[in-house]
Amino acid sequence: MKKTRLLSISALALASSLALSGCTALVVGATAVGISAATDTRSVGTQLDDQTIEVRVITALQTDDRFDESRIQVVSFNRSVLLLGQVGNSSLRDLASHVVRNTKGVDRVHNELKVAPVISFGQISKDTYITSKIKAKFVADDVIKASDIKVVTEGGEVALMGIVSRDVAQQAIEIARNINGVTRVIDAFDAK
């Protein structure tokens, strides 16, 4: 606990000093890695690789005007990329997969994009609440180590990522499935 607190304070101090010097983009990455590195089971190198992959994919999608009317969440965990959100047609869904597959460092793609209208702010708020409820249940569970599992919710669909045993994965899926508002659970786990 002391190590986590010290690391958090150090990251905050680094963020503050860098923000004053105008390096805001660096601050976000440095702070996020500093705080998550203390509890994440992946190596710091893998965490940085995942962040780099996310930035590359997001940049590629944002610079392509065809995605202007889309909402796409990009999550990389252990070099597996998960795409969640809404696009205007199946061609855009396929194009997003192509962009991810051609991104340096990506091993697997989980394309869960829906051909549908972009969800409302109200739904985004509900999704945030669902994610927090699932994470709280994971923290309270005796079998699951909450820091081993990444939870992402989009349109009531919950995606679970992490490197866990099959038993832990099944327990996590069952917990998520039983949270009010969850319409589907996506198993994007890597086997341990």
Order of helices and strands: HHHEEHEHEEHEE
* Spatial extent as radius of gyration: 17 Å
Number of domains: 2
The CATH class designation of the largest domain is: Alpha Beta
Largest sheet: 4 strands, mixed
CATH topology of the largest domain: Histidine-containing Protein, Chain: A
CATH architecture of the largest domain: 2-Layer Sandwich
Which stretches are low in confidence, meaning pLDDT under 50 for 5 or more residues running? 1-36
The average pLDDT score comes to: 84
How much of the sequence is in beta strands? 15-25%
Helix content: 40-55%
In whole angstroms, the N-to-C terminal distance is 26 Å
Number of helices: 6
Shape: globular
Number of strand elements: 7
Structural class: alpha/beta
Features:
GMP Synthetase, Chain A, domain 3; 2 domains; 6 helices; globular; single chain; Histidine-containing Protein, Chain: A; 192 residues; 3-stranded mixed beta sheet; 4-stranded mixed beta sheet; disordered N terminus; alpha/beta
Task: Give an overview in words.
By secondary structure, the protein is of the alpha/beta class. The protein has two domains: 44-115, 2-Layer Sandwich (Histidine-containing Protein, Chain: A), CATH 3.30.1340; 121-190, GMP Synthetase, Chain A, domain 3, CATH 3.30.300.130. Helix content is 50%, strand content 22%. It has helices at 2-20, 24-37, 44-62, 90-101, 121-140, 166-177; strands at residues 71-77, 80-87, 108-115, 149-154, 157-164, 184-187, 190-191. The strands form two sheets. Strands 4, 5, 6 and 7 form a four-stranded mixed β-sheet that branches. It is globular. The model is unreliable at 1-36 (pLDDT under 50). Residues 49-117, 126-192 form the BON domain. Pfam families: BON.
